[in-house]
Design a protein that fits this description.
180 residues; 6-stranded mixed sheet; 3 helices
Length: 180
């Protein structure tokens, strides 16, 4: 009788673990894909360099999809030991036509500082020199708009102790930002 009870308890425990493992396998793809598409740029003015410093956060899987759509499947493997060695060059090449600042009717070139690859996100660091902190500017961020119809690109700015947030989307690809 006691061995039947112990056998029942062991089988029940194993069954629970199997069911839990199966549920996790079924839920895992849902947890990995995200139901919304967004990028976030944190932008601040550096008084010493008279530059805009930009930290652009992109979801890693979205970036890999965009790179594949633009350049073909290169085996990106971002944020893994197998990451393509030239990943930075491709990311920079992808961002160049999609990410721009115009001030006083002239494009302000940005410099690639580098990228930080994490499993869920890639942080791209850019800097724009000779930026006039007292003049308004146009912000263009069309990252991922070619692959996701619901993509939103948020920009949080801190210039002259003023904080401004804007977003771009498929319907509004640029924003004019006035500085007080």
């Amino acid at each position: 009788m006691k061995t039947d009870y112990l056998y029942f308890r062991v089988v029940t425990k194993i069954t629970r673990h199997i069911v839990l493992a199966l549920l996790l396998c079924l839920i895992s793809p849902v947890l990995q894909s995200h139901p919304f598409h967004v990028s976030v740029a944190q932008v601040r003015y550096n008084q010493q360099n008279q530059s805009l410093e930009i930290a652009l956060k992109l979801f890693t899987d979205d970036l890999e999809n965009a790179l594949t759509a633009s350049f073909g499947n290169q085996g990106w493997n971002l944020a893994t030991p197998k990451q393509l060695p030239a990943a930075d060059q491709y990311v920079r090449k992808y961002l160049k036509p999609r990410f721009a600042v115009t001030q006083k009717s002239q494009s302000v070139n940005w410099n690639w500082v580098g990228a930080e690859y994490q499993m869920d996100a890639v942080w791209c660091y850019l800097e724009l020199y000779n930026f006039d902190k007292n003049a308004g500017f146009e912000w263009k961020n069309t990252v991922f708009l070619e692959i996701f119809s619901d993509q939103k690109n948020i920009g949080h700015f801190e210039i002259n102790n003023e904080k401004i947030s804007v977003y771009t989307s498929r319907h509004k690809r640029e924003q004019k930002i006035g500085i007080q």
